[in-house]
Write a structure and sequence with these properties.
This protein is of the alpha+beta class. Helix content is about 25%, strand content about 45%. The protein has an 8-stranded antiparallel β-sheet with strand order 2-3-4-5-6-7-1-8, with helices on one face. Strand 5 and strand 6 form a beta hairpin.
C-alpha cells in the first residue's frame, strides 16, 4: 500500500460551534462540498457519535472515484473529531477546531494508505497528481463550508 499524509487548514470568520455542527453532520456534506458524491450511514453511534460508521464516495478532477467507510473513534465537542477509515483508503482522519476572536481554524490531518492495486502500482509516478487532487477536494470543502455558513474563508491550504 502507498501511504499518504495530508494536512489541511481552513480559516473561517465564523464561530467554532457553527463550523463544528457542519463538519460533524457529514451526511449533509454532498449538499455543500463539491467532490463528496454520497455519504450513507451504515451503523449509528452512541449519543456523541462514537462508533458511527458512514460510507463515503468521493469524485474529483481525476477520473476515478474513491469509496471508504469511516468509523468515528473519538469525539470531543466542539474541538476534536477522529475516525478510522477502511476500504479503498485505510488510516486515520482527525479534525481539530480552534477559535479566537470569532475566527475558527479548522485543521484536518489525513494519514491514509491506498488499497486499490492500480493506485499502489502507479503511486511512484502519480503521487504528485494524487496530492494535487486531494488539495483540490479540500479547497472545495473550505469554500463550500464558508458558503454554507455565510462567512468568509480567510485562508485555505
Amino acid at each position: 500500500m502507498a501511504a499518504y499524509s495530508f494536512l489541511t487548514t481552513w480559516l473561517l470568520e465564523c464561530e467554532r460551534d457553527r463550523v463544528w455542527a457542519a463538519i460533524h453532520d457529514s451526511e449533509a456534506w454532498p449538499s455543500w462540498w463539491c467532490g463528496v458524491e454520497r455519504v450513507v450511514e451504515i451503523t449509528p453511534g452512541d449519543e456523541d457519535g462514537i462508533g458511527q460508521v458512514n460510507r463515503y464516495s468521493w469524485r474529483s478532477k481525476l477520473p476515478y472515484e474513491l469509496e471508504f467507510e469511516m468509523r468515528t473513534t473519538r469525539v470531543e465537542r466542539p474541538h476534536l473529531l477522529e475516525g478510522q477509515a477502511s476500504g479503498e483508503l485505510e488510516g486515520v482522519g482527525r479534525w481539530r477546531l480552534y477559535e479566537e476572536e470569532g475566527t475558527t481554524a479548522v485543521v484536518y490531518e489525513w494519514n491514509v494508505a491506498t488499497t486499490k492495486p492500480w493506485m499502489n502500482a502507479l503511486a511512484p509516478l502519480l503521487r504528485p497528481a494524487f496530492a494535487w487532487n486531494h488539495d483540490w477536494v479540500m479547497g472545495n470543502g473550505g469554500t463550500g463550508l464558508a458558503h454554507l455558513l455565510g462567512c468568509r474563508l480567510i485562508a485555505s491550504d
